[in-house]
Amino acid sequence: MKSLSKLANRPSVEDIIIFIADSLRFDHLSNQLRNEGISAETIAPSTATASSIPSLMSGTYPATHKVWGFGDALPQTPPLVSGTNRGLTTQHIWESSEPEQRPPLRSLRLQEKTGLEDVESPFTVVIHDRGAHGPYDYLNGEMDSSDEFFELYSGDKEKLRELYQSGAEDVQERFLELLNETDIDDTLVIFTSDH
Question: What's the sign of the alpha-carbon dihedral 49, 51, 53, 59?
Answer without folding.
Answer: negative
